[in-house]
Specification:
Elements (H helix, E strand, L loop, with lengths): L1 H34 L5 E10 L4 E8 L3 E6 L3 E10 L2 H6 L2 E6 L2 E6 L5 H5 L5 E9 L2 E8 L3 E3 L6 E6 L3 E7 L2 E6 L3 E7 L5 E6 L3 E5 L5 E8 L3 E3 L6 E3 L5 E5 L5 E7 L3 E5 L4
Parallel strand pairs: 2-6, 2-8, 3-7, 3-9, 8-10, 9-11, 10-12, 11-13, 12-14, 13-15, 14-20, 15-21, 16-20, 17-21
Antiparallel strand pairs: 1-4, 4-7, 5-6, 16-19, 18-19
Amino acid sequence: MKRLVLLIVLVILAAIAGVVARSASRAELRSLVSHHNSADVRQEIRQSYELSPGARVELSGLNGAVKIETSDSKTAEVYIERTASSQEALDARKVTVEADGNSLRIRGEKEGGFFSRLFGNSAGERVSLKLPRQISLVAKGVNGAFTSGDVDGAVEVSGINGRVQIASTNGRASFKGINGSIVVGLKKIDLDGVTLSGVNGNIELQLAENLNADFDAKGMNGRVISDLPNVSIDKSGRRGYWARIGSGGIGITAKGINGNIRLTRTPSA
């Protein structure tokens, strides 16, 4: 019996020693990886295209911040800075740019395997664009802040892990699955309205002076606040709010917002 007890104790001690050793090995491995995790390899992509008025610009699957400047030009200028800790990691992830007169598409493709992503060896990119103002803009699956100038067309933004800021939109606008705050200017809203859903952060809607809309928010985990003198906010149910902006009309709807929504005036130029 004593021998059996001694054997059990020895097995337990061996198991504990193994766990400690493995933990130490993992810690050393993480330390080694983080030590060499600086962006040692770099690649630049520079391209330009002519786009027709109303062209569709789509960005998807990007691992880094996106910054867009807009103007009355017809030329789209693309600059992408790609970085990784090794050439192998850079080659494992592809970023494609495709364009014709009616569209511009920038897409990041999934790279490597589980261990590359686990230890931070995946490649990343920073995207800077100079675009015509007369476009429709679509962005989905961006792991970083997303900033854009004025857009005279529809805007659709989803799956962003970072702050979203758009100087102004002039049509339909949709924001879905945003893990960060949103600041967006609304010059005009078309028949499809403006929708906000699944946002984890505060929202600021900067409204043009002559904008008319009905505002309806449901499932709010936060407050709705108006800085506009002629807009009053009414409580609707337990977590809902309603307001009429100007003479009312086309809808601005929000649901599943974990943060506050503030209605303000568009800043002066």
